[in-house]
Description:
Elements (H helix, E strand, L loop, with lengths): L2 E8 L2 E8 L5 E5 L6 E4 L3 E5 L9 H11 L7 E5 L7 E5 L2 E7 L36 E7 L5 H21 L11 E7 L14 H29 L1
Parallel strand pairs: 5-6, 9-10
Antiparallel strand pairs: 1-2, 2-5, 3-4, 3-10, 7-8, 8-9
Amino acid sequence: MRLETVWREEDGARLASTVWRSGPGYRMISSALLGGGIGPARWVLNAQVAGGYSRMDPVVHLQELAGSYGLEGPGVGMLTAASVSRTMRRDDEGVAVSATVGLRVPTWAASPAGTADPELAPIRLDGTAPSAWTPGTINIVVAVPVPLNDAALVNAVITATEAKTQALLEAGYPCTGTASDAVCVAAATGGGAAEPFAGPRSVWGSRIARAVHAAVRAGALDYTAYLESRAT
């Protein structure tokens, strides 16, 4: 996965995005705002937005950004208030992962109805208070060099999510993630029959798990270091 980092000026801030121009030959599953679901895709965009992001048309925004970067055809687009310039990349035996990790509002997936998630660090990169909601605080992109059938793609999302949660707990964050995380798994379409499994004890699932775990854990520890630097 060859990521390109691009910059833009928006909302009075200099913001980074990562672009993976995968080209043809990939089928992707994603929970992203743009290009979510299962299908062929030629690129993945992970765009940082300001902490006070207030646009009510995020899909249109992502389409505008994709056009400005020359991205054509079907693709996957995600937004995050995490620092995209601090994207963590990890590989494991052919699996490549990139992750942006922001943990201002760490969240347990199952919590009592009506319970507010506690804010861990109510600050933005410029030191000012963020809005009550910021999108996509942990975004994960996984590239697998072999075909996966539909069931295995779904299985890969589960494996990546489990590995993400394991990494967060090990890094000292009592949460399963944040309420607005997104994931994209891209599987190559050539090279023989599609793999039927991607659980954490399958060949490719175990590689996905290790790579996601390493990237998210590194990102969580980096976020901790950032908070500590802001506190001094």
